Backbone:
């Protein structure tokens, strides 16, 4: 234990003398957590729509005014020709086109049914899909209203309809940053500690000091622990800072136990640091370590469930996600912060991460060779 | 110049030590002995295999074949015990630039498990001996090369090793500092520490008790500097080295 104390004193002195590391530890989580969640918002507003109204009746006017009233849809112009509207879509000026056909009102009253035509510009698939959703909603509501007015009550009841009622549990107002902040926090902790640990041993190789270490009788696990503990503490600091930003900026108070959150994070950090150290035992240059970590981080973030749901991935991708430690931490942090999940609920994830931590660290110790 | 009585206790026994990297034989079955308290010069042109041989003796590289016993320990089987008993100063700079002299000393002393009392005594002694009182709290990166090398050498001796391996310790060091460095080497040799040193300066070769000259992975000559000069009918070690190294077939 005494040896490790000397190793820790040395590592911390070096860390506190390195300005870029300090900026990375303190500046990065604070700044990123303030910017990213607000930008990474799935709620799309300002969807442009062009209305081609060829009917000019009170009913169609009413529909148009409903669309006008929506805060999500931005009515760009009212045209009379579909071709003109299509031109706007081709120029990427509009995302949606709604065509109200001639004699819309007349046919509606006579035939008791009528068709509207919606065209979406699928270049930006997300915007198009959401826009279509919003517009359909408005039309649906408009339709209900019309039916209520035009049909006798009794007749209306005969045609029973299933109406869905929708509740967002755990995030009742569907505020996206509530969902994004815990995820981004988990990922930030991963990135900072992963990169720092991966670069550390490689730096000693580059400087040549590792040779001096290797010629001493230091035990391999002492050396690795001396590298792991500082970043473990730094990870805890980053996580704490992030939780504070979540509270002060977004007002997020974890619904579950904070201790549980930290407990899981501590085990998780061991896994991430083990991975970082493992990478650094395989590399000779900081550049190599950096690129390799970058490669993995890309996969970790894209397949970690931060931006896209893992449930929606194909089977093979789910397999990759299962080997991705980031997917577990994002899952757990979200569950504990938003749902208030307890230890019982996260036991499977905890078990997996413990296995990751043991395997990765043993591998790193094994692969760190004092004698070549 | 040489007032030290040479001991005949062998502290390094090398027998047919070989290191291959693929087809390339860096060190080709070398055999030699080094005695306690001896200053042993390990010479050779660039790429002759000196550093490879030295790294094997320090337990940094595993030999392909052959054996060596260093400080009484087999480098194959007892690498860990061996490391308690040797000091090493590699070609690359071995101290941390972003730590002060004192912090570097404490770090290495801690690794070698010296007691707190020993650590403070040693660091004080080292600083006084080197006259670095003013620089003790400066970052090592701010020191001139010569001073760094002197500190590095002292740090390699902190745990009082029986043998210290120095790989071109005076490269890029000015003549005055080099002289001081050699004074330090003599001082430790007098205390019984064996010095195993590689160098490209032939005047330094003259300071050694015995020198070996490696050519293409093999030891071509090994004797006292005076004997080698006589044998090769040369006026200086420079000439001896030139005669031998010229035969080298492999380039760097």
Residues:
């Amino acid at each position: 234990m005494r040896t490790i104390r000397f190793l820790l004193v040395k590592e911390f002195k070096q860390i506190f003398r390195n300005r870029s590391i300090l900026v990375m530890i303190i500046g990065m989580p604070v700044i990123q957590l303030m910017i990213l969640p607000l930008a990474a918002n799935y709620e799309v507003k300002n969807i442009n729509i062009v209305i081609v109204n060829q009917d000019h009746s009170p009913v169609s006017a009413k529909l148009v005014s409903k669309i006008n009233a929506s805060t999500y849809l931005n009515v760009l112009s009212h045209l009379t020709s579909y071709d003109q509207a299509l031109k706007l879509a081709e120029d990427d000026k509009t995302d949606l086109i709604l065509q109200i056909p001639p004699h819309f009102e007349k046919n509606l009253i006579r035939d008791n049914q009528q068709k509207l035509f919606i065209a979406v510009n699928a270049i930006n698939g997300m915007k198009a899909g959401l826009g279509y959703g919003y517009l359909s909603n408005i039309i649906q509501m408009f339709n209900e209203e019309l039916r209520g007015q035009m049909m006798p009550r009794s007749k209306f009841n005969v045609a029973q309809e299933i109406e869905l009622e929708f509740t967002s549990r755990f995030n009742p107002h569907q505020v996206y940053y509530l969902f994004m902040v815990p995820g981004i926090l988990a990922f930030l902790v991963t990135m900072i500690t992963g990169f720092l640990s991966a670069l550390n041993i490689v730096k000693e190789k580059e400087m040549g000091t590792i040779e001096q270490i290797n010629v001493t009788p230091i035990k391999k696990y002492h050396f690795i622990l001396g590298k792991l503990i500082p970043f473990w503490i730094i990870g805890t600091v980053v996580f704490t800072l992030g939780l504070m930003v979540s509270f002060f900026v977004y007002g997020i108070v974890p619904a579950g136990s904070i201790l549980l959150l930290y407990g899981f994070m501590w085990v998780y950090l061991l896994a991430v640091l083990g991975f970082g150290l493992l990478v650094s035992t395989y590399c000779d240059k900081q550049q190599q370590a950096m690129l390799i970590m970058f490669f993995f981080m890309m996969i970790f973030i894209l397949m970690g469930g931060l931006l896209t749901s893992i449930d929606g991935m194909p089977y093979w991708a789910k397999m990759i996600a299962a080997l991705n430690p980031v997917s577990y931490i994002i899952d757990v942090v979200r569950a504990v912060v938003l749902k208030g999940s307890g230890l019982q609920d996260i036991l499977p994830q905890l078990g997996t991460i413990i296995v990751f931590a043991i395997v990765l660290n043993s591998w790193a110790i094994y692969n760190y060779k004092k004698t070549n | 110049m040489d007032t030290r009585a040479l001991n005949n206790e062998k502290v390094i026994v090398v027998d047919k030590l070989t290191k291959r990297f693929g087809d390339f034989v860096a060190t080709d079955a070398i055999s030699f002995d080094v005695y306690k308290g001896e200053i042993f010069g390990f010479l050779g042109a660039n790429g002759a295999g000196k550093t490879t041989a030295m790294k094997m003796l320090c337990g940094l590289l595993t030999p392909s074949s052959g054996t060596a016993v260093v400080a009484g320990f087999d480098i194959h089987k007892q690498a860990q015990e061996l490391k308690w008993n040797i000091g090493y100063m590699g070609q690359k700079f071995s101290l941390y630039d972003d730590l002060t002299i004192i912090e570097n000393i404490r770090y290495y002393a801690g690794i070698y498990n010296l007691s707190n009392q020993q650590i403070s005594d040693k660091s004080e002694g080292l600083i006084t001996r080197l006259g670095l009182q003013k620089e003790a709290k400066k970052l090592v990166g701010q020191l001139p090369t010569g001073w760094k090398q002197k500190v590095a050498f002292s740090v390699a001796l902190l745990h009082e090793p029986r043998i210290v391996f120095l790989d071109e310790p005076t490269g890029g060091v000015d003549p005055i500092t080099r002289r001081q460095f050699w004074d330090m080497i003599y001082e430790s040799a007098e205390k019984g520490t064996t010095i195993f040193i590689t160098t490209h300066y032939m005047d330094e070769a003259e300071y050694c008790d015995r020198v070996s000259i490696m050519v293409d992975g093999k030891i071509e000559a090994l004797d006292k500097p005076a004997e080698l000069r006589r044998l090769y009918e040369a006026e200086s070690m420079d000439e001896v080295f030139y005669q031998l190294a010229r035969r080298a077939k492999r380039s760097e």
Chain A has a mean pLDDT of 84.
